[in-house]
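Try this one yourself first.
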């Protein structure tokens, strides 16, 4: 019976090493499945970060336009806040 067991499995250090590796892979708090979830979540967070950085850049450009261009400010106020000039009628058409 013992003749069929490979020689490396008879070594107690190898057995302990295998047991520790199995413990770290499956039973530890930071096992492989949890590490995969963390890496996927990190990837999602990085994509979300890129999206918000682009939004910040776009909004900064729009803010600069509003601060420096009175026509742009008037257009924005008319579109977003439905402001109007005197003696002017606004017709809102729902989509």
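Now uncover the answer:
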């Amino acid at each position: 019976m013992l003749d069929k067991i490979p020689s490396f499995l008879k070594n107690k250090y190898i057995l302990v090493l295998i047991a520790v590796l199995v413990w770290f892979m499956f039973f530890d708090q930071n096992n492989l499945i949890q590490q995969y979830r963390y890496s996927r979540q990190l990837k999602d967070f990085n994509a979300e970060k890129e999206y918000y950085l682009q939004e910040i850049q776009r909004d900064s450009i729009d803010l600069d336009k509003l601060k420096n261009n009175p026509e742009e400010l008037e257009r924005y106020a008319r579109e977003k806040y439905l402001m109007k000039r005197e003696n002017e009628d606004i017709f809102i058409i729902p989509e």
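Discussion: The chain has a mean pLDDT of 88. The radius of gyration is 32 Å.
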